[in-house]
Amino acid sequence: MSHCLPHLRVACMASNQSSTLYITDQGGVYFEVHTPGVYRDLFGTLQAFDPLDQQMPLALSLPAKILFCALGYNHLGLVDEFGRIFMQGNNRYGQLGTGDKMDRGEPTQVHYLQRPIALWCGLNHSLVLSQGSDFSKELLGCGCGAGGRLPGWPKGSASFVKLHVKVPLCACSLCSTRECLYMLSSHDIEHHPAYRDLPASRVLGTPEPDPGSIAPQDPGGTAQACEEYLSQIHSCPTLQDRMEKMKEIVGWMPLMAAQKDFFWEALDMLQRAAGGVGQGPPTPES
C-alpha cells in the first residue's frame, strides 16, 4: 500500500486469507484482492480484475467518511462517520443482514442498524456490538448459525437479530470464529466512535421540503417499513413461521434493549403456547 499509493496514510485495516481492506486517515476505502473467486463474490463481476496486477488497491466509492471496517472471507462491512453500516459481497447465508440472500456487488446500507460500537465479519456470518439508550450492550448477528456462530439462532438469519449472549457492560471489541466468540471488555474515556448527526436532507425517507406543507410526512419512512413488515408476516404459511418472522422484525426495530427483551420473551411464551395446542410439541429451535 505504501509503495503503490505513497501519498495516503492508512488509519486502520482488516485482512483475510486473500484480501486486505484499508481505511485512510481521510476516511477513504481501498481494497486489495488476490483471487478471482473472492473478487467475483465481492463485486459480482471480474470485469476490473487484473491477474497481472493484483497489488494495486482498488478504491471503493462511499457517500461519506468511513471510520472503521470488517472483512470476512467473501464479504465486508463498513461504518461511516454518521454511524451507518454498509455491507458488500457474498450473501449466500444472509451474512449481509439485508433480509434476503442476494449478493451485493457494492456497499449496501443496512437501514435498521446504526451507530455500532464494533463490527465483525466472519466466514459466513456477521456480528454487531451495539449500545442501547439505557447504556446496556447487546450483540446482534446474521448469516449462518451452525456451530454456535449465532447463539440462540441455530438456523441462522438473513437479518441482524439479538443473540442470546450476556454482553459485558464495557465490551468494546469482538472477534468470532466458527465455534468461538471473543469480546474485549475495557473502558477508555479517550477512545470511542465519534459519530456525527446525519443532515436532515440526507435521512432515508425524508421528503424534500415543500413550501406548501407544514410538516414532513413520515420523516423516517416508518409507516412504509411497518407495511412491509406486515406483508412479510402475512406471507408466512404457518403460525409458527409468523412467530419466527415477528421475532426477526423486533430485532430490526430501533427499540430499547429492555423493550426488545420484553417482546422476545412474550413471543416465546405465545409460541410455546401455540405449539402445545393442536400442533404437536414445539421444535427445539422455537
Automatic annotation (TrEMBL):
Annotated RCC repeats reside at: 83-132
Question: What Pfam families is this protein classified in?
Answer: RCC1
Q: What is this protein called?
A: F-box protein 24
Which top-rank group of organisms is this from? Eukaryota
